[in-house]
Design brief:
single chain; about 180 residues; mainly alpha; 6 helices
Length: about 180
């Protein structure tokens, strides 16, 4: 009897849900947009130093806001792809698959609680942020505070997904040997 190519081995982790894959794609697309606007803002600032007629103060503010956007939008993506800081030392010390599952489950629970708390704080910043505007462009800061809210809400969802998959060994996005190169 042969296995069909569509059947995973019995100890393989369940396939990522399409929702998580689409969420990751959307986050990456937004992060790429912010990376592009960051590059444009910085290049505009450099151009403004050499061509005074092209100098625009708003370019610096756009670059700063884009950096904030990249930072917070990628929170959920990094949690979903195991790109956050992990406690690999504890995971290596614990013997047996049950112990490693407990370590992963506890870390996913803590990550979920932390992301929930940060989501709540970001929500309160959004509520209060529309009373203030940015100094140069006059953008209400509530719109800027939506970025941490979206990022931490996505991080909460991804952390819950990690909790569901805590029973399965999944490689980290970056291992220590790769980081030391």
């Amino acid at each position: 009897m042969t296995d069909t190519p569509h059947t995973p081995p019995p100890d393989a982790p369940p396939q990522a849900r399409p929702f998580f894959r689409w969420l990751a794609r959307i986050e990456l697309a937004i992060a790429v947009f912010f990376l592009f606007t960051l590059a444009v803002g910085v290049l505009w600032q450099v151009l403004g130093r050499y061509v005074p007629a092209a100098n625009w103060v708003g370019a610096g503010e756009i670059a700063r806001f884009s950096l904030i956007g990249i930072t917070f939008i990628t929170v959920g993506y990094l949690i979903g792809q195991h790109g956050q800081i992990t406690v690999a030392v504890i995971d290596g010390i614990v013997k047996g698959p049950r112990g490693r599952t407990v370590v992963r489950a506890v870390s996913a629970i803590l990550l979920t609680l932390i992301c929930l708390a940060l989501t709540w704080e970001a929500w309160s910043m959004v509520e209060d942020g529309f009373r203030r505007v940015s100094p140069v462009l006059g953008i209400p800061l509530g719109y800027l505070y939506l970025l941490p809210l979206i990022g931490f809400a996505s991080g909460t969802v991804m952390a819950i997904g990690r909790l569901v998959r805590a029973n399965y060994d999944e490689p980290d996005a970056l291992i220590a040997e790769e980081a030391e190169v």
